[in-house]
Design goal:
The protein is α+β, with helices and mostly antiparallel strands and 315 residues long. It has 3 domains: 3-75, 434 Repressor (Amino-terminal Domain) (Orthogonal Bundle); 84-165; 206-313, no CATH class. Helices cover 40% and strands 16% of the residues. The strands form 3 sheets. It has a 4-stranded antiparallel β-sheet, with no helix packed on it. It is elongated.
Length: 315
């Protein structure tokens, strides 16, 4: 018996309609029909299909672990934990390649800049030396009949001012050089579940977080969306769920645990949401938050305190 036949048989046994199940589980009726028909192509990709199956099986009182295992076997789908491991490996390889490309580009750029600076400095030094070694010709200067003809021509104040001693020449200064930017925390491969999530603000009563198998109430989550590329690290109850550079428009939703630690490369580069409360602007200025700790429901308060502490440390 297939998974779909098992679900349909149990539903008919309990004399429950699809409309009733859809209303109580918040799963669209079309997806319930697809599950009973074993039509996997009609189901959404990724973790959502497994989440719908688990929620449906749980509603009917079936063993969710057995149903999920049979589902994987029937459709030859890799388990969720294996998908996470494969995605982490791909992210790590992509991260290493990106670091190598950036290192090569910076090396080439540094060589080019150093070469140009050396050429400019060399030309400047050569011109100064050439001017300091020039000898005044008495005939060209109209001094042929002057008492100093045949002797060294004394220098006037202007000539002395324009004379250059090569020993006193200094290398070009770097007073106008741009200051070296503060180092940006190095990104690292993430250890998170990769799935499609909505952009902020999130609507509805339930949402799928990256650290849970199925949808959870929206009041039990916090979310981060990248306005521009930004590095974040999210640790929940000792497990690192995200540690990498988020792309522009990328959103991550997390279910609350007991203890949370965040690291945010730039608070001005993200939007956030805690439960149903949404903040489109977290900070007007760039702020690096190296460590934000909080418990369940304390996301906003901890972030606000961390930003306040960071501002007081700015000279």
């Amino acid at each position: 018996m297939t998974i779909g036949e098992t679900l349909k048989k149990e539903r008919n046994k309990r004399k429950i309609t699809l409309d009733q199940i859809s209303t109580e589980t918040k799963i669209a009726k079309m997806y319930l029909i697809a599950l009973e028909a074993d039509d996997i192509k009609a189901l959404p990709e990724g973790v959502y299909a497994r989440s719908f199956l688990r929620a449906y099986a749980q509603y009917l009182g079936l063993d969710t672990e057995i149903i999920t295992t049979e589902f994987h076997k029937q459709f030859e789908i890799k388990p969720h934990s294996l998908l996470i491991m494969e995605q982490n490996k791909q992210d790590e390889q992509s991260f290493v390649r990106e670091r190598r490309r950036n290192a090569f580009f910076l090396t080439v750029l540094g060589i080019v800049v150093a070469g140009v600076a050396y050429v400019v400095w060399s030309l400047f030094f050569a011109v100064k030396i050439d001017r300091s070694n020039q000898v005044l010709d008495p005939v060209d200067a109209g001094l042929a009949n002057q008492p100093y003809l045949g002797t060294a021509v004394p220098q006037g104040p202007q000539e002395a001012e324009n004379s250059v001693d090569p020993a006193n020449l200094a290398a070009p200064t770097t007073d106008n050089a741009e200051p070296t930017p503060a180092p940006i925390p190095e990104s690292a491969p993430e250890n998170e579940q990769v799935s499609q999530v909505p952009t902020l603000p999130i609507q509805g009563d339930q949402v799928q977080p990256v650290n849970a198998e199925g949808p959870v109430p929206i009041q039990s989550v916090f979310a981060i969306e990248a306005i521009e590329p930004v590095w974040i690290e999210v640790t929940i109850d000792g497990s690192i769920w995200t540690r990498r550079l988020l792309s522009q428009g990328e959103t991550r939703v997390y279910r609350y645990g007991t203890q949370h630690i965040l690291k945010i490369g730039d608070a001005a580069a993200i939007r956030v949401q805690e439960g149903a409360q949404y903040r489109e602007v977290l900070s007007e200025t760039k702020i690096y938050l190296p460590r934000v700790e909080f418990g369940p429901g304390g996301f906003y308060a901890a972030v606000d305190q961390a930003m306040a502490d960071a501002r007081t440390k700015v000279p």
